[in-house]
Design a protein that fits this description.
By secondary structure, the protein is an alpha/beta fold. Helices cover about 40% and strands about 15% of the residues. A hairpin with a 5-residue loop joins strand 14 and strand 15. Bound molecules: NADP nicotinamide-adenine-dinucleotide phosphate and ligand G4F.
Length: about 350
């Protein structure tokens, strides 16, 4: 049985899609879940409750900051592929909890790599690297595997360590270790505090009379937004190659936060008319004049990544990977899901 995978961050957006993808490929899937006072397994409850996969899907308590639990689990499960998706993944929050972010998003990667090196060194390893590594040096878009890194947050700096220690273990110990440098990817399962989901939930709540207006931070930031379901396939493809390497996954299309807001409201028949600039910028329903969007500086970050636009040519060429879901389709999917859940 070579199809045994261990996923950290299995309760997260990507962990849930990756689990479904690997199960559909016949894998035995093991996931690490940390203990919470209330359940946090909503995204994978349908898998936990599915008796037809009770011999294929397993959940274990562990924590990425706890090297003992990681080593014990690698020893016990003997995985052939490890997907390291766990992280304190919110860039804005990383300014509030920088030291914890360094620990969970950075240093923990060496704990997992060591657990693998010492107990199952032929295991393939995927590291969830990020476009936040680029930060955005002016003139460096689109960003590819060759673009220099310049992280702009404690999150980005922690991920930079994880990126390089993954490369280092590949070179020093000949381990099959890959970095997926993934640009923003979203879905109806996206955490509610990330901007896309915050917007689509707000649209649904405003339409059902449960919310007055949407308050956001930087409307000018540009992101390369794809669909998470497409990206987990790319993670898997990286581990199916003859040689380990690092790959960018992106759509090669960028939109401002403001454009995401426009598109989300258009899904429910509302055209936003923008008036004012900076912190005074406001978005109104063009037909009724009702105020729907404003700017609240509390959502600004101490430092910002202004432009992300990824060049996925290497992944397209070597992995035969291509994103399937486009920007408008993604927005539609997310708005529909949030509207349906409020009905
Ligand atoms: P997410 O929804 O925030 O999920 C993060 C996962 O990490 C959750 O399962 C969380 O568990 C787990 N986790 C956090 N701290 C942990 C710890 N100390 N021990 C064990 N588990 C811990 O993130 P995502 O969007 O799925 O992203 C997956 C990975 O890709 C992350 O590493 C993220 O930084 C990276 N990434 C994401 C994107 C994107 O656009 N989504 C782009 C590039 C890179 P709880 O449920 O217990 O909190
Ligand atoms: O949705 P965001 O919080 O995502 P961000 O910062 O780009 O990070 C995400 O993508 C990274 C890949 O590039 C991942 F590595 C990371 O784990 C995470 O998944 O913010 C997107 C943009 C930012 O420029 C932010 O300043 O939206 C801007 N924004 C404007 N108003 C807001 C808000 N972001 C949030 N979260 N909330 C707001 O109210």
């Amino acid at each position: 049985m070579s199809k045994i995978a261990l996923i950290t961050g299995i309760t997260g957006q990507d962990g849930s899609y990756l689990s479904e993808f690997l199960l559909s490929k016949g894998y035995e899937v093991h996931g690490i879940v940390r203990r919470h006072s209330t359940s946090c397994t909503q995204r994978i409850d349908h898998l936990i409750d599915d008796t037809s996969i009770k011999d294929q899907f397993f959940i274990h308590y562990g924590d990425l900051t706890d090297s003992c639990s990681l080593a014990n689990l690698v020893k016990e499960i003997k995985p052939y592929e490890v997907y390291n998706l766990a992280a304190q993944s919110h860039v804005g929050v990383s300014f509030e909890v920088p030291e914890y972010t360094a620990e969970a998003t950075g240093v923990s990667t060496i704990k997992l790599l060591e657990a693998i090196r010492q107990n199952k060194s032929d295991c393939k390893f995927y590291q969830a690297s990020t476009s936040e590594l680029f930060g955005g040096i002016p003139g460096t878009a689109p960003q590819s595997e060759k673009t220099p890194f310049y992280p702009k947050s404690p999150y980005g700096a922690a991920k930079l360590y994880s990126y390089w220690i993954t490369v280092n273990y590949r070179e020093a110990y000949n381990m099959f270790a890959c970095n997926g440098i993934l640009f923003n990817h979203e879905s109806p399962r996206r955490g509610e505090e990330f901007v896309t989901r915050k917007i689509t939930i707000a649209v649904a709540k405003i339409m059902s009379g449960k919310q007055e207006k949407l308050s956001l931070g930087n409307l000018n930031a540009k992101r390369d937004w794809g669909f998470a379901g497409d990206y987990v396939e790319g993670m898997w493809l990286m581990l199916q190659q003859d040689k380990p390497d690092d790959y960018v996954l992106a759509t090669n299309e960028t939109h401002t936060v403001r454009e995401f807001v426009d598109a989300a409201f258009e899904e429910v028949g509302i055209t936003i008319e923008w008036r004012g600039t900076g912190v005074k910028e406001k978005g109104y329903d063009s037909k009724t004049g009702r105020l729907l969007v404003d700017v609240n500086p509390k959502y600004f970050r101490p430092a910002e990544v202004e432009l992300l636009l990824g060049d996925p040519a290497k992944a397209e060429r070597h992995l035969d990977w291509k994103r399937k879901v486009g920007f408008r389709e993604l927005v539609k999917m997310m708005v529909k899901s949030d509207m349906d859940s409020l009905e």
